[in-house]
Amino acid sequence: MIDPLFFGEDLGAGSNKLYGAHGGIQIQAVVASDTGQQVSQLLGFRNRKPPMKVSIGGMNFYVGPGAHDWGRAIENLDYERMTGVPETRAVMYGILSRYMQQFGTIELPVNLIVGLPLEVLSGDQAAINAENVKRWLMGEHEWSTNGQEYAIKIEDVKVTSQPSGALFDYLLDDDGQFIPQHRAHFNQEMGIISIGFNTLELLTVNDRTVVQAMTAGRTLGVRRLLELLNGDNLHTLGELDTKLRSSKLDIRQAMPVWAREITGQIEKTWGNRWRRFSQLIIVGGGAILLRNMLVERFSGKVHIPDDPVISISRGLYKLAKQQANRRKT
Ligand SMILES: Nc1ncnc2c1ncn2[C@@H]1O[C@H](COP(=O)(O)OP(=O)(O)OP(=O)(O)O)[C@@H](O)[C@H]1O
Ligand SMILES: [Mg+2]
Fold first, then answer.
1. Where would you tag: which of 128, 222, 291, 297 has the fewest CB atoms within 10 A of its CB?
2. Distance (Å, rounded) from C-alpha 45 to C-alpha 50?
3. Which ligand 1 atom sits nearest the alpha carbon of residue 284?
4. pLDDT digits over 218-235, tens only?
5. 244 lines ligand 1 (CB under 6 A)
6. Is the whole-model pTM more than 0.90?
7. All domains of the chain, ordered by start, with CATH?
8. Ligand 1 atom nearest residue 286's Cα
């Protein structure tokens, strides 16, 4: 039997992250449908390279930074996003194309572990939601990117929560083995916070078990910061996020307001119980934006990984390796 290729896939609302044996890459999850109405041949202007163009069954999409300047923006943050809608496919194929351009064609069958928001995995719809995610990802995929044809076969998909990815990134090394110095924490009480574009997620683990009453996700991510700056609705959130990422957005007034929303939700879910945690792991782009405040507030407990944005997908990859090791023995 041939060994499959393992990947951790983080279907983030702000950016898609893919982590494999060669490392991790990310692509901003902004998509526009191509209306085929570009103006060209104009003198005296700065020429900008168009974003990546992904074609799926005759439909064309622009993907990545600047996409909303080139076509009709598709922006929809509901959780149906996870279930193989066209814009999610476009981003997924976009990131797979980029991975193959960088590291070579993927010819072997692929095994994925996908990280989903806690809200998607909560309540009586959880099993159906997970099934829907698996259904569109499994099987053969064909598309083209900037005119070049691509194909892959995904033969296995497992799902888990986003913050679980961050936890296993902390616990495991790249071969899926426990990191000895971190292993002991898994038998104690730990908290994990993910501050993403759409979601703020809190996971509590005690002695290798999820503490349900202290685990919850809300849509309080960076989008809420951007919404504070978009009162007149003149921009798409994707446009504002591109500006934020390139430090072209003045967030000084809005930051403290958003930070209070974040700490308010943490307080609601955890109260002061985070003081009991042996370790508090914080990931997501929000961990970069709020780093100083978080370190100060949860003094002494906080671990922010070297790359807090990639961490979830990297942990999912490590978890896939661990599971494969177990199957072998
Ligand atoms: N290097 C960075 N520096 C500053 N801000 C960043 C950086 N990377 C990301 N961000 C900001 O953090 C936000 C959240 O990024 P992240 O990739 O964690 O969200 P996501 O996983 O896509 O969203 P969700 O978890 O809600 O699905 C981004 O939208 C961006 O505004
Ligand atoms: Mg995320």
1. 128
2. 15
3. 18
4. 999 999 999 999 988 999
5. yes
6. yes
7. 5-328 (3.30.420.40)
8. 12
